[in-house]
Amino acid sequence: MKDAVDDYDFSKEMSVNELVLQMGKAWGFTAGKLAVGVNILEQMNQTRECVKFLSFTGNLVATGTRGALRELVKRKLVDVVITTCGTIDHDIARCWKKYYKGSFVMNDAQLHDKNINRLGNVLVPNDSYGIILEQKMQTLLQELWKESVREVSSSQLCREIGKRICNETSILYWAAQNNIPVYVPGIVDGAVGYQVWLFSQDHDFRLNLLKDSGELNDIVFTAKKSGALIIGGGISKHHTIWWNQFKDGLDYAVYVSTADEWDGSLSGARPREAVSWGKINAKAKRIMVEGDASLILPIMVSALLSRMKNG
Q1: CA triplet 198, 56, 199: central angle to 5 degrees?
Q2: Which of 279, 283, 285, 309 is catalytic?
């Protein structure tokens, strides 16, 4: 025991990074974990030849947290993105249409009658989602077809989406601009995947997910170090840690999730469990920050950006 717990000091105004630094001294349960998480992300970005993975679930892209994710990609603080089809759906849709504030408790039958979908406490009108996605995706797929493209991987499709039908508000736009690959292993589980399937019904057009695997194989096997910010769980989380087991596991790992581990789910599994599989190195710097990423992530990203700017 050498580091004492200190109280917060609000005698002067402070930046978000200064607040996070105080969290590291105040400790206070999740606050202490958040502070450690930012420290690990800072070290990960300062480590030369470290391949940095960003993994997250699509629900966050329906909220303003999209902006925090976008900044990590825009400022090249990540090298590889692994996510879900919902990310592509919401990222495209919000380039062109608005989502709206709602509540967790609403009359869902009435919303359905009004062609409004509820995602937690976010409202997504049909014309802000399915309709605009069909228009944009079918136009894109027709363009690719005319250019004699008959097959794409998920990363190729994300790159074309980012280049052709997204704007500067978009995660995919900046990924394409910065040549950061975006992998979507469950790409058929969403509106964009459905549109590709629909197009394939009268065109010999295919998705090649094995090409994505080949690229990830090359990334991992040539990486001297690797780290990951993993937000939420599911397929994007597992795909990230799965591939990193082939290089003796992640060297840095920061999890942000609300999931519990007592049900044995991958989403709730703590970093220590991944060590047993070799997906995170036993010597890795790792932390699990329990909580809602829409609250935690903007704080962590803001503090990290401040440190990288001043570093």
Answers
A1: 10
A2: 279
